[in-house]
Design brief:
There is one protein chain. The protein is mostly helical. It is 58% helix and 3% strand. The chain is built from ten helices and two strands. A two-stranded parallel sheet has the order 1-2.
Length: 210
């Protein structure tokens, strides 16, 4: 969560506490904030609602760990859905086409794993391990509430080869909801996820400890 989300978070926590007839001190509110600040505010709100409605644990006022478990469960569910899209897209569209998913975290995770083309080089024997790696990466970003930079499109083999010949980019195949996929492309970046720059030797000398 961002600092600007703190008021919204406080309202959610205080509303939950009131439902259980509990009070929350300023010190306790700060503890809750520190424990959950790494998650997305919508995910936190959803976790509180699921706890309140749960027939198993809903009779007890939650602790931060209870809410984190609820968030982790939704992150796992989301990672499974995201991997299902990736798996189907690779099998039905393939890596010759440039693609754009309707979820920016899919783009970031695939970029972290070497890119769309590299994904298509994996064998069926490797595929379960690829799926595990993708879901772990996705769940990590999602549960921490991160919104990392991501590539606009996932370049396919045809576009990569055409780019070497100086041809313009081809149209991307939208995977999932078309309007959201277009929004993902609009919000992405053409810069590499990991910035690498050579530093001149003279700057090394200036930065060296005296």
């Amino acid at each position: 969560m961002k600092p600007s989300d703190k008021k919204r978070f406080a309202g959610c926590l205080l509303g939950c506490a009131e439902a259980y007839g509990k009070g929350v001190s300023d010190a306790a509110l700060e503890v809750w904030w520190q424990c959950l600040a790494g998650a997305d505010v919508e995910a936190v709100e959803g976790a509180f609602w699921r706890h309140l409605r749960s027939p198993d644990v809903g009779q007890f006022f939650p602790k931060p760990a209870d809410i984190l478990r609820m968030i982790d469960g939704t992150s796992l569910d989301a990672s499974m859905v995201a991997w299902g899209k990736v798996d189907q897209a690779l099998r039905r569209v393939g890596t010759y086409a440039t693609v754009a998913f309707d979820d920016p975290l899919v783009h970031r995770c695939i970029a972290d794993m070497g890119g769309w083309i590299e994904l298509g080089k994996k064998t069926e024997a490797e595929w379960p391990f690829v799926g595990n790696e993708f879901r772990t990466r996705y769940k990590g970003y999602r549960s921490r509430g991160e919104a990392p930079d991501y590539p606009r499109r996932l370049m396919g083999i045809t576009e990569a080869e055409n780019a070497q010949r100086g041809y313009p980019p081809e149209a991307a195949v939208c995977i999932g909801d078309e309007s959201r996929a277009l929004a993902v492309m609009a919000g992405g970046s053409d810069a590499p996820a990991l910035g690498i720059k050579r530093i001149p030797a003279k700057l090394h000398l200036l930065a060296a400890p005296k």
